[in-house]
């Protein structure tokens, strides 16, 4: 009988201790898990800065120039070209004429340099051949740009686009003449690139006007 009472007492004691242990382990820990210094997240640097185009537009303070030049071959060059000549209410046709005239001036400059090189007795035979081709191509370029100016002046932007688009073909023919001349590099690559960008600007603007994107 005493033995049975002892076993019951023992079981009650064991049960009480088990409950106590369970209640202790069930309490949530309040210890904060801290990252080691090497594991702490670092802030990524935020890219900042204003593009040349945005900076130029900020100076000019003309949202119309932004709209007009966006989507062109070289928006910065477009804005630099037309901004100094625009006064009063923004006129997209006037802005286009300004860009075309800038292209004409650059083409005339290149044509003049070609003539000087052709007249230079130190110019090599291979270079003379390439320059001769370029001279004829730039004659065509000048004629087409001048015709484009007249068409735009008459508000005929559609025909102006078709007329002006051949400018790039003539420019490429000049480039090919140098590529096909062994040992001869084009002597005016930067001017040639600028002419391409100005021409691309004009074509993009004319396309935008025809499709009512820049009116």
UniProtKB/TrEMBL annotation:
Pfam family, one: PMEI
Organism field: Glycine soja (Wild soybean)
Family in the record: Belongs to the PMEI family.
Protein name (record): Pectinesterase inhibitor domain-containing protein
Positions of the Pectinesterase inhibitor domain: 60-205
SUPFAM superfamilies: Plant invertase/pectin methylesterase inhibitor
Secreted is among the record's keywords: no
GO MF terms held by the record: enzyme inhibitor activity
Keywords for the protein's UniProt record, in alphabetical order: Disulfide bond, Signal
Cited PROSITE patterns: PROKAR_LIPOPROTEIN
């Amino acid at each position: 009988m005493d033995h049975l009472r002892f076993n019951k007492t023992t079981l009650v004691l064991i049960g009480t201790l088990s409950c106590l242990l369970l209640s202790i382990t069930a309490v949530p820990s309040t210890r904060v898990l801290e990252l080691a210094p090497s594991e702490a997240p670092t802030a990524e640097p935020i890219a900042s800065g204003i593009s040349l185009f945005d900076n130029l537009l900020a100076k000019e303070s003309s949202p119309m120039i932004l709209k007009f030049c966006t989507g062109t071959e070289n928006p910065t060059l477009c804005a630099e070209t037309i901004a100094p000549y625009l006064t009063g209410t923004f006129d997209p046709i006037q802005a286009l004429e300004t860009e075309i005239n800038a292209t004409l001036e650059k083409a005339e400059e290149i044509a003049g340099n070609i003539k000087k090189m052709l007249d230079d007795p130190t110019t090599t035979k291979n270079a003379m051949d390439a320059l001769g081709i370029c001279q004829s191509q730039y004659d065509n370029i000048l004629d087409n740009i001048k015709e484009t100016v007249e068409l735009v002046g008459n508000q005929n932007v559609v025909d102006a686009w078709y007329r002006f688009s051949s400018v790039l073909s003539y420019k490429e023919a000049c480039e090919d003449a140098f590529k096909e001349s062994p040992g001869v590099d084009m002597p005016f690559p930067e001017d040639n690139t600028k002419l391409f960008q100005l021409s691309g600007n004009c074509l993009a603007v004319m396309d935008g006007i025809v499709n009512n994107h820049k009116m």
